[in-house]
Amino acid sequence: MKKQIFNSSRGFSLVELLIVITIIGLLSTIILSSISNSRARAYDSKIKQQLASFRTAAEIYFGNQVPNSYTPATNSCTSGIFNDVSSANGTPGLYIAAGNLPDFTQLFCGATDSAYALKATLYSGNEYWCVDNKGSSRMIAGTPTSGTFCP
Question: Which residues span the membrane (predicted)?
Fold first, then answer.
């Protein structure tokens, strides 16, 4: 009669399971941190694109005014060329909708008859993106003012 030998290692040992769980935990941590960095870059890209679109619209606005100008001059992001109301000759103003930007975004606006600048916080909160009528489009450090140029 043959003796049956029972193999006691039918499943995984506790140590093997703990190693697999640890590896899965490490991989998920790496993936989540990568997603967080991607989200920050996406927010920054959206802000930069919105401001670039504003610059294009501002130049169209300037060209449609008679005489050409960015009037009415303002340092408010809700009035003048930064608002959606019509100008004196019926040309619609530009509209900076807060709903188009991420929730954390702060805007700093400034316009005169011949110049404008628009600055917005980036995701880090310590850096700002600035566009102006001279074609500047760059990152600035420190809290911006409502001036009409990118420092």
Answer: 12-35
